[in-house]
Amino acid sequence: MSLSEPDHELVVAELGREPTAAEAALFENLWSEHCAYRSSRPLLSAFDSEGDQVVVGPGDDAAVLALPTPEAADAPAGERDADDYGDTYVTFGIESHNHPSYVDPFDGAATGVGGIVRDTMSMGAYPIALLDSLYFGDFGSEESRYLFEGVVEGISHYGNCIGVPTVGGSVAFHDGYEGNPLVNVACVGVTDADRLVTATAEEPGNKLVLVGNATGRDGLGGASFASEDLAEDAETEDRPAVQVGDPYAEKRLIECNEALVDEDLVVAARDLGAAGLGGASSELVAKGGLGAAIDLGAVHQREPNMNALEILLAESQERMCYEVAPDDVDRVRALAERFDLGCSVIGEVTDGDYVCTFDGETVVDVDAEFLADGAPMNDLPSTEPAEPERDLPEPDLGDAFEAVVSDPNAASKRWVYRQYDHEVGTRTAMKPGDDAAILAMRETAAGATPDDPEPVEDGAGAADGTDDATGVGLALSSGANPRWTSVAPYDGARAVALENATNLAAKGAVPLAAVDCLNGGNPEKPDVYGGFEAIVDGLADACAALDAPVVGGNVSLYNDSVEGPIPPTPTLAVLGTRAGYDAPPARLDGDAAGDSELLVVGHAGDGLGGSAYLAAAGGSDRFPTLPEEPAAVVSSLAAVARHEATLASHDASDGGLAVALAELVDDDAGADVSLPDRAAAFEETPGRIVVQTTDPDAVADLAGDLPVFRLGEVTTDGTLSLSVGEESIAVDADAVRELRGVIDRELA
Q1: At what angle do helices 656-664 and 397-405 cross, to 10 degrees?
Q2: Best exposed site among 166, 370, 449, 586 by fewest CB in 10 Å?
Q3: Quick one: angle between helices 526-545 and 489-505, nearest 10?
Q4: Closest CA to 746 of 738, 613, 664, 660
Q5: Three-class DSSP category at 110
Q6: What gap in Å lies between CA 621 and CA 615, rounded to an integer?
Q7: How far apart are CA 25 and CA 7, in angstroms?
């Protein structure tokens, strides 16, 4: 990829001369789709990003959110005011590393984790959790399995080594990702008002200091590479554009960053990601309306004879750029040395242009704001997606059940998450494998301080029966469903938002905010861009209706290969809150079988479009009708899940009620359920949970306007007995495990 002729003419007009080679390469990368969002930025204004909980919204390395107090944590965000939020902040961000993960699945995925963790650090936060949302071609494809195994290994290696738990996420398989997998990673960090840092340079005369690994030649042109379709020979030709990670250096950088923030030595910070030093330093000063004077020769390097362009654009990992007051430089250098990290004073903030010199020669002299924000936006044609007809086959019930339960999209992801250390850090209260993860934010408990975040043991409550030691539970869910958005991009994206919010609600939490990773194909194709527009609008409308502001995100386009474009894929990561850390499991309680009932709460949508059932059986259908007031739905479902009589709670998503019921069954707990027809058994309308309760009247009261239906009885035989219309099947827990264990079995 090179600077296009129209862009070249614009740069020449601004500079009044031909750009140098280094300037041309900088503009090529920073004006690429990956960095400048040229095809998507005009659409992103649809998102609502404001709220009392939002401390820092879109535009920085990560968003910053204030957590509610424990007393307000169960209330929907739309019903809180500014006084309901405390002094504990969390950061939230998401990134993609799609093309690199195809070329080199291990390093591509690993460095994606490293990048989003450094985005978290640059806000003055300590990373506490990761979520990964992964998308691959058909599970039966040898290449898809190779990519799947390599990506999971890369994520687990990097995350485990740096001590940040991977607590949740999603995995989807779809033939639209053949030749172009997606790797989307979100990170949560913790900080407070005193430790908060931004990526906005503040004062001319302050020094720019580079801390971390030495700069090499890896990752050259990574930003421009991410803005092109993948070619047939990408695995070999584009290998130099993929970075190589060093998680042990990242761990030292995390701890060094923490020490720098502790001592208030950081004025502003930016991690070195896309476009390397050139991207980080120019964006840092541009956000402050300032400039910089940088000596590229001062950058610590690990390879000999590097030229200016290589030093400027290499995307070598584990590096941070800090703005530091002159009097603090020696202390920064001393801390870097303590953690065995390189440290270079590479220049200073100025009130002029962005200027880089090398060997006494000026190689870059441009206006920083023009470089960072001057790329013209694209005005692209689009075609609206068509709605499918209704054509419903009716295979044998047993065959249909086996197909959806063993579908790799609905099957157990234990093979994935057992490779992750999801408990390091001691916050993980609800582990992977359930609807949502829950982190214990003990610093929000009454009486907690930064030095003593857990002042008394859980359970040592006050006289009124409350637990003074219990703070806010932070619930997390992320993912998208490509079948939904392939069939109906707008409604499918709305369903993605509602599904993630329902995952939180099933554990008793309500949404606080969301971040998105919008993945699409080549936007220059009208049908592809039409689908992309639809997922943006659908996600924006749904998040606004859920009172979940979209506070940050990432866009990844040109995800095309020789196999064609990917499905429009709006990954959403949603963060929610509840009082306390306990939640009902997605597993039936056989001990309470005789004293409990099995209910489903929520509206059915009477449509099988985008379902695992139709993917297995063939045919087509419209997408299910979604509820009109999703915030009220989620609030009611969360209240049901929190009630003391709720013994188990699980959302209905991939595979519908049939799969949800199968997942609830255990060796000593089964269910005897009757459903009227195939749509009731297999439609995938989000906004519903299956509940085992000892007090069905309380569920009906808490559900409000939501319908509540009795599904059947909980049994002690460990068998799901399912009647659908005139057909019946019985499947025991061992058989369910065998069906759901397809990924473990095939990759063993």
Answers
A1: 70
A2: 449
A3: 30
A4: 738
A5: helix
A6: 11
A7: 12
DSSP string, 234-302: HHHHTGGGS----HHHHHHHHHHHHHHHHTT--SEEEE--TTHHHHHHHHHHHHTT-EEEEEGGGS-BS
Which residue, 476, 580, 519, is CA-closest to 170?
Answer: 476
Instruction: Give me the torsion for CA of 178, 183, 184, 190, rounded to 10°.
Output: 170
- Residues 8, 34, 422, 603: which is the catalytic one? 34
Cα 118 to Cα 205, 252, 340, 382: the distances in Å are 25, 12, 18, 36
Amino acid identity at 747: L
Residue 34 catalytic?
Answer: yes
Beta strand 719-724 with 670-675 is parallel
Helix (H, G, I), strand (E, B) or coil at 477: strand
Cα–chain center distance at 650: 21
The whole-angstrom separation of Cα 316 and Cα 327 is 28
Per-residue DSSP letter, 511? E
List the catalytic residue out of 97, 99, 157, 174: 97
In angstroms, the CA 268 to CA 261 distance is: 10
> Of 418, 484, 430, 476, nearest to 654 (Cα)?
484
- Local structure of residue 449 (DSSP, 8 states): B
Query: What's the distance, Cα to Cα, between the start and end of the chain in Å?
Result: 41
Residue whose entry in the numeric block shows the structure tokens 């379902």: 611
- Select from 399, 421, 408, 307 the least CA-distant residue to 356: 307
Between strands 126-136 and 182-192, the pairing is antiparallel
Query: Which value, in Å, is the radius of gyration of the alpha carbons in the chain?
Result: 26
Q: Please answer whether residues 384 and 530 qualify as being in contact, where contact means their C-beta atoms are separated by less than 8 angstroms.
A: yes
CB atoms within 10 A of CB 52: 15
Under 8 Å between Cβ of 185 and 95: yes
- Whether residue 669 contacts residue 598, with contact meaning beta carbons closer than 8 Å, is answered with no
Dist CA 482 CA 486 (whole Å): 6
Q: Are strands 166-173 and 126-136 parallel, antiparallel or unpaired?
A: parallel
pTM metric for this prediction: 0.94
Bridge partners (DSSP) of residue 518 are 555, 570
- What is the residue type of 428? T
Residue linked to tokens 């857990």: 454
99 flagged as catalytic: no
Residue with tokens 């390091």: 424
Binning the chain into helix, strand and coil, the percentages to the nearest 5 are 35, 25, 40
Torsions phi, psi of 367, nearest 5? -75, 125
User: Is 595 within 8 Å of 715 (Cβ atoms)?
Assistant: no
User: Any idea of the CA torsion for 317, 118, 236, 220, to the nearest 10 degrees?
Assistant: -60
| Whether the Cβ atoms of residue 357 and residue 294 lie closer than 8 Å to each other | yes
The amino acid at 546: L
Question: Which has the minimum average pLDDT: 119-123, 214-218, 221-225, 622-626?
Answer: 221-225
- Using alpha carbons, select from 610, 631, 633, 613 the residue that is nearest to residue 622: 610
Q: Which stretches of 335-471 are assigned E, i.e. beta strand?
A: 342-350, 354-358, 361-366, 428-430, 437-441
CA 537 from centre of chain: 19
Pairing of strands 291-295, 354-358: parallel
User: In which band, very low, low, confident or very high, does the pLDDT at 245 lie, cut at 50, 70 and 90?
Assistant: confident
pLDDT at 334: 98
* Arithmetic mean of pLDDT, 548-552: 98
The yes-or-no verdict on residue 458 having pLDDT over 60 is: no
Structure-block tokens of residue 410: 């609905």
The residues that bridge with 409 in the sheet, in sequence order, are none
Amino acid identity, position 391? D
- Other C-beta atoms within 10 Å of 723: how many? 17
Q: How many CB atoms lie within 10 A of CB 628?
A: 9
